[in-house]
Amino acid sequence: MDGRDVVVDQVVVHRNGRLILDGVSAAFRPGAITAVCGPSGSGKTSLLRLINRLDVPTSGAVRYGGVDVAGLDVRELRRRVGMIFQRPTPFPGTVRANLRQGAERSDTDYARVLEQVALTASMLDRDTADLSGGELQRVCLARTLTTEPEALLMDEPTSSLDPDAARVVEDAARALAGAGMTIVWVTHDLQQRDRIADDVFAVGDAQ
Amino acid sequence: MITWVGLAVSVLLVVVAAGLSAALGLRIERDIVVAALRMAVQLAVVGGLLTLVVSPHRTIWWSWLWVVLMVGYAADVTARRSPAVPGLRWVSLAAFGAASVVTLGVIFGLRVFPVNGRTVVPIAGMMVGNSMTATVLAGRRVVEEIADKREQVEARLALGHDTAAVCRPYVRAALRSALLPQIEKTKAIGIVFLPGAMTGLILAGVSPAEAVRVQAVVMFLVLAAAATTTVVVAVGVARRLFTADLRLADTVPRPAQ
């Protein structure tokens, strides 16, 4: 078992009397992008939220590096397993102020993470209110990368982006997986799945 | 001084209000009359009790007991005005308690007013009564801020922030909203309107200079009380919107999926 393996074991999620996930099991390996596919409402987002502990399962367990995440310090877990949301979630202020919310680092370090998402250090003083959707999502990705995560949960991160911006995010994710990161990427776009995925996990089929 | 006849004549003003409602078809004549009657009865009871409490022969502890009951009642009213805000009763009890300690501590501890039955209850009453609106607003706004910006809040949680760091920008925004009306009101005093305590003192024959000094103290008191209660309520309510393991509580509405 690698220290960066994410394993979902027989998880069940009930919310407001509705069954969201019914006994789902999956394993996500390091150094690969696993595409999580499934129809709308099949629980793809819910699955990611369990791994980051933004939600807890009704039953079953999520393990990271062989340890039940319920037993890990939640803040430590979230810094080791970063999450990118479907819509960009910039905070008010400049790009630098956003990156600081991830971690206090030097501008040189910020330039390096911006480069990982195909942005440049000249962006640091720009206000997030002036950025395009594609730029915002990449800033959010860079913000998460400042915490130096070992795994990345990406919830349809390109669904609100144009094709060119989507490709940039895909390339960034490919490079991160190439560097050994565990990447779980939710998508309903089959072409995107074929472009990016090393492994595929279909939520609806597995239940 | 107001005579009983004068008081009876002033009831004509209630008739004017009810008459306007009837003439315009507002159908709130009954509410106006009931409100006026209720106010008169409540004031009569309070006046009677105050007469007992302010008597120089009475121990000051009766006044302090009155303050404690007032704080409890204010916390209850605040909670009932915002039933959707979780745990507001206890948080606002802590808030009004803290505001009482801070403001009455300064006013009476530093001898701005002497401690006696004539000062304790009215000063505490103005402090609690005037900070209630801001307190209710702070509780509501912090819930609205965090629910409206749920995605941002969860992005902060996902970065490994603790509750205090996650809440900070939303608590700040809620506090600004809650305190701005009181700040605006304070700015407008003397220009746009003459406040109640000062007007009452002048009507009672106190010199305007002295009435102004009393009013200034009251306004400082109300500002400090509103600032204290809103901070305690905003921080206290914000904490209750998160679970112990740093997730948003189920009481925070989720977006439709």
Automatic annotation (TrEMBL), chain A:
Keywords linked to the UniProt accession: ATP-binding, Nucleotide-binding, Translocase, Transport
Annotated GO biological process: phosphate ion transmembrane transport
A Pfam family recorded for this sequence: ABC_tran
Cellular component aspect of the GO annotation: membrane
GO molecular function, one term: ATP binding
Matching SMART domains: AAA (SM00382)
UniProt cross-references to InterPro entries, sorted A to Z: AAA+_ATPase, ABC_transporter-like_ATP-bd, ABC_transporter-like_CS, P-loop_NTPase, PstB-like
Domain ABC transporter: 6-207
Domain of life per record: Bacteria
PANTHER family: ABC TRANSPORTER I FAMILY MEMBER 17
Name of the molecule in the record: Phosphate ABC transporter ATP-binding protein
Annotated source species: Leekyejoonella antrihumi
Top-level taxonomy: Bacteria, Bacillati, Actinomycetota, Actinomycetes, Micrococcales
From TrEMBL, chain B:
InterPro entries: UPF0014_fam (IPR005226)
Keywords: Membrane, Transmembrane, Transmembrane helix
Topology within the bilayer: Multi-pass membrane protein
Subcellular location as annotated: Membrane
Keyword Membrane found: yes
GO cellular component term, pick one: plasma membrane
Pfam families: UPF0014
Positions of transmembrane segments: 6-26, 33-54, 60-78, 90-113, 119-139, 188-206, 218-238
Main location: membrane
Highest taxon listed in the record's lineage: Bacteria
Family: Belongs to the UPF0014 family.
Protein name: Iron export ABC transporter permease subunit FetB
Native organism: Leekyejoonella antrihumi
Gene giving rise to this polypeptide: fetB
